[in-house]
Amino acid sequence: MLNNIGLPGLLLIAVVVLVLFGRGKISSLMGEVGKGITAFKKGVKDGSEDDEAAEIADGTAARNVTPEAEKEKA
């Protein structure tokens, strides 16, 4: 059903949404979406840093055990 939507169809949908909600409402909505994405990225980064710190603290951190000869090939 949605396979036939091209650029003209998307433009028509964008115009209809703009008319229904207005520029100010869409602008504030996009600002909130941007804040949410930023918060999500920060949370993922903080979570991975916490995981790394925990692995280092308990000695389960991954170590590179590749032989020196193999490292030189890469």
From TrEMBL:
Q: How does it assemble?
A: The Tat system comprises two distinct complexes: a TatABC complex, containing multiple copies of TatA, TatB and TatC subunits, and a separate TatA complex, containing only TatA subunits. Substrates initially bind to the TatABC complex, which probably triggers association of the separate TatA complex to form the active translocon.
- What would be one Gene Ontology cellular-component term for the protein? TAT protein transport complex
Q: Which Gene3D superfamilies match?
A: 1.20.5.3310
For this protein, the parts annotated as crossing the membrane are 6-22
**Coding gene?**
tatAd
The entry's family comment says: Belongs to the TatA/E family.
Q: What name goes with this protein?
A: Sec-independent protein translocase protein TatA
The record's principal subcellular location, in a coarse class, is membrane
Source organism (scientific name): Jannaschia aquimarina
Q: Which GO terms describe its molecular function?
A: protein transmembrane transporter activity
Keywords, A to Z?
Cell membrane, Membrane, Protein transport, Translocation, Transmembrane, Transmembrane helix, Transport
One GO term under biological process is: protein transport by the Tat complex
Q: Does the keyword Transmembrane helix apply?
A: yes
Where's it found, cell-wise? Cell membrane
Nucleotide-binding found in the keyword field: no
InterPro entries listed in its UniProt record: TatA/B/E (IPR003369), TatA/E (IPR006312)
| Bilayer topology | Single-pass membrane protein
Biological role: Part of the twin-arginine translocation (Tat) system that transports large folded proteins containing a characteristic twin-arginine motif in their signal peptide across membranes. TatA could form the protein-conducting channel of the Tat system.
- The record's region (Disordered) falls at 45-74
